[in-house]
Amino acid sequence: MFSTLVSTEILAAYLTNPGWRVFDCRHDLANLALGAQQYAKAHIPGACFAHLDRDLSAPKTGTNGRHPLPDPAVFLAWLGRQGLNPGDQVVAYDAGNGTMAARLWWMLRWVGHESAAVLDGGFEEWLVEGRPTTAEVAAFAPSEYNSTVRSAAQVDAAWVKSRLESTGMLLLDSRAPARFRGEAEPIDPVAGRIPGARNRFCAENLAADNRFKRAEDLRKEFGALLGDRAPQEIVHYCGSGVAACHNALAMEIAGFPGSRVYPGSWSEWIADPRRPREKGPG
Q1: Rounded-to-integer distance, Cα 226 and Cα 244, Å
Q2: Top-tier CATH class for 5-149
Q3: Least CB-packed of 48, 71, 92, 199 within 10 Å?
Q4: Which residues are tagged catalytic?
Q5: Considering the domain 154-269 in this protein, what is its CATH number?
């Protein structure tokens, strides 16, 4: 079972194995149609497409963030329509850095599907290595996907707010440093961060080749942030609950399992002006 990362070499070896399922998660926040267009042009053989807004998020209400989690029953029904079975090994990929793929990885873990991994290096690495692609859309017989949600994997805004003064929670903000400090905000209407958060830019999880750093390097870096804290005390957030999953994945790779994600993240947090905010160096 692969539960964090899969290399392109390993995926290529198992590509025709019926117990392995591949999902294309390519997405561009500035061009919402681009991922589907790229998938239609070329994708890894056998891959199904997972659209961030349509398949991996619930409808926006104006107060639940930019990429709210879907109801678990809705997500499980979608998995069933893709023909996924609980014992299948899932490999999710995106254009390269794993941010979008990590969202599906985390959601699968959220509903108890442990055999889920991200393709290290993504579609970019797959192409560089000259591996096969296709425009053919694979068809799978629908399944009845039943599972149990791991409620401990996530927290909501009320949970976070009630613990802002607690020493039992450490918020890790996965956004770029300028956004964390409130110096720039290219997406959301308000700049800043949740009070008490520390910054761990998710791009720092990657090496120069756009693959994840070695587990021992990630362990050293996250260990410096955690100190004596248990991983279960860590809550990841970002702008909308996507990049936060990248940090959750990096912690799993590092050998720190059990951290949590605040899916609503900054875009939900600022929807209520009564929730505190701060700016400046963290």
Answers
A1: 16
A2: alpha beta
A3: 71
A4: 238
A5: 3.40.250.10
